[in-house]
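Reminder: ligand-aware prediction takes two inputs, not one.
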Amino acid sequence: MIPLFLLFGIFATVQSLRPEITNPPVTGEVKVPHEVQTILRNSCYDCHSNQTNLTWYDKIVPASWLVAQHIKDGRNGLNFSEWDKLSPADQKAKLWESVNQVSQGAMPLQSYTLAHPQAKLSQNDIKVLQNYIWSLRVNNKPQDTAKIEALNDQSAALKKVENSAKIPQTPNGIAYVADYKNWAVVSTTQRLDNGTMRIIYGNDIAIKAIKEKKINPWPDGAILAKAAYEEIEDEDGNISQGAFKQVEFMSKDHKKYKKTNGWGFSRFKTTELIPYGKRADFVIECMNCHKPMEKNDYVFTLPIRQ
Ligand code: HEC
Ligand code: HEC
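Here is what comes back for the chain with heme C:
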């Protein structure tokens, strides 16, 4: 047993080591509609701005050490008070990433909302953020005419393959499904490193399962598609969907695809929809990378909760 006085001693000493959190100047604040701003201020600013409410964190070491680290890391990755330091494209990308993080329930950090329940986002808050980000995507006509023309040529090329008698098929026997473009969108993600955006779609069975929260495991017949597109950026940095690069499918059938964790994997590349993989065992590559999501039935995407 450690004597009580010693504990107090340690406690008091450690308090004096409290890390200093300061609020550097705001160089340029994010410009978003008022209702979006309110949500960000309420739930994100303590860690992602230079306007941290310094009274909020429980001033007890070691909790404040953790908090100080969160604020440091948070500001490093995303700072709504130094928005002017990002290019318009990066600003847009950070907003996309923010909405993705929020949709997946990864932000605000749970350790924070436990202590600050008022910072938790309601379903409605999440919808407001999602609608805002989608409005950015669809309202802005891309400016890059060369790319748009290329895009038009492309969709014609794609249609030609889709309408041909021979439907492309991967070596493990999975045929391309042209209809995925009409399925509901489950989520969108962006890769900042190579300028692509990915749209994840679900067929009717998948969408029904999401609504009924029966996605662990996903039911047989569910198909998830992930399509990758180039991004087109206009003069204001608005990003919209550009040229098609590839589409991948995961088709659930726990019996038929037993050997591959219940999923049939397939990938078709370019507008020629070239099936990926030389032999049926190409799926090892897919499986290995999806393996960390084992507890989630091998699916990365947490659907935007309806
Ligand atoms: C308690 C502090 C805290 C709060 C509140 C918080 N975050 Fe974070 N956030 C972090 C930390 C720490 C990281 C970096 C490490 C990580 O990814 O876990 C981060 C990372 C991020 C990233 C990735 C940034 C990058 O590109 O590196 C995004 C986007 C993000 N947060 C969005 C949000 C949004 C949106 C909110 C509000 C709805 C929010 N966060 C609330 C602490 C916080
Ligand atoms: C390098 C790692 C990696 C490899 C290899 C990989 N994936 Fe994925 N896959 C991901 C990640 C990460 C996501 C989550 C969405 C995102 O961030 O783009 C994903 C998402 C998907 C999705 C949407 C459903 C979900 O899990 O979110 C499908 C469908 C998919 N992948 C199919 C495939 C197929 C088919 C292959 C093999 C030909 C494959 N993947 C190989 C990393 C990988």
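The chain has two domains: 4-138, 142-296. The longest helix spans residues 145-163. We will return to this case in the review session.
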